[in-house]
Design goal:
single chain, 2 strands, 13 helices, mainly alpha
């Protein structure tokens, strides 16, 4: 017989796996957080267009392996018989969600049974690595990005590049200028300080993103992102400015016109010149 506390706990767990809401789950070790995440992952698999739309991020490789194993095991068991009478509520819920996820996989021909690599359960470092490999130009890492356990040499290189590119005439430079004067304009000392700062960013980064007293933090971050995107687009447009694109754009326009509305070239229909270097032009740049 289920008591009130157990019934409330079960109801909360069912609410947490619903995909139309977001939750923060705080609970001690051994309380079933990984099991809950597995249920939510399976629930999401039943409604997405592609399994890659779901990204589960963990802190350790051990947690990644455990959660991936649970998902794959649940999908493998979905083709079998449901749990017997007397099984725990969690086991029945796991089987029900796995059956729905497997049915979606077969309907969309994902082949998750034979291609579990499409399940994105990764560490934070692994997710960053995956993004860098998918966006090699934006990440400026080429195709040979690797994970490193000791990033100190990379911090040193980033600090050296920052100091070498420092423009004290920039509107954002007065604080850096004051720091440089305090260091007797010693670039090596400034570089060492920045290197140390990068290695301890877990101490100061949360303060940088703290929204207390800043009513428009999200707006500031959005404006910064827009500026970064448009700066990169202007660099691309400038690099391509000396090329006569007219013949190529004619061919692209013909190819785009041949495709249906679902074609990835659809944004290029009627294109006669390079798109504007603005956020509004990003879909056209991506298609191009």
């Amino acid at each position: 017989m289920m008591n009130d506390a157990a019934r409330d706990d079960l109801e909360l767990r069912r609410r947490v796996i619903e995909p139309h809401r977001s939750f923060i789950v705080q609970a001690p070790a051994g309380s079933g957080k990984t099991s809950l995440l597995t249920l939510r992952y399976l629930r999401l698999l039943a409604v997405v267009e592609r399994p890659e739309e779901i990204v589960a991020v963990t802190f350790t490789r051990k947690a990644t392996s455990e959660m991936r194993h649970r998902i794959i095991k649940a999908l493998g068991g979905a083709a079998g018989s449901p749990p017997a009478d007397g099984a725990k509520d969690h086991e029945r819920e796991l089987h029900r969600l796995a059956v729905a996820a497997l049915a979606r996989s077969r309907e969309c021909e994902w082949g998750l049974e034979n291609n579990p690599a499409r399940l994105h359960v990764q560490t934070i470092d692994g997710l960053n690595h995956w993004l860098a490999r998918r966006l090699p130009l934006a990440a400026r890492v080429g195709l040979a990005a690797t994970l490193v356990d000791n990033a100190t040499p990379l911090y040193a290189e980033a600090a050296r590049r920052f100091v070498s590119l420092l423009d004290l005439n920039s509107p954002a430079a007065p604080p850096i200028d004051r720091l440089a004067r305090a260091l007797d304009h010693d670039p090596q000392q400034l570089s060492r300080l920045i290197e140390g700062m990068l290695g301890a960013r877990e101490m100061w980064l949360p303060k940088l993103l703290d929204s207390s007293g800043r009513s428009d933090l999200r707006g500031e971050i959005d404006r910064l992102l827009v500026s970064a995107i448009e700066l990169e687009l202007r660099r691309i447009a400038q690099a391509l400015g000396s090329i006569d694109f007219a013949p190529l754009l004619d061919l692209i326009g013909e190819a785009a016109a041949e495709g249906a509305g679902e074609s990835p070239l659809a944004p290029l229909v009627g294109l006669r010149e390079l798109p504007p270097a603005t956020v509004a032009g990003v879909p056209v740049w991506e298609a191009l």
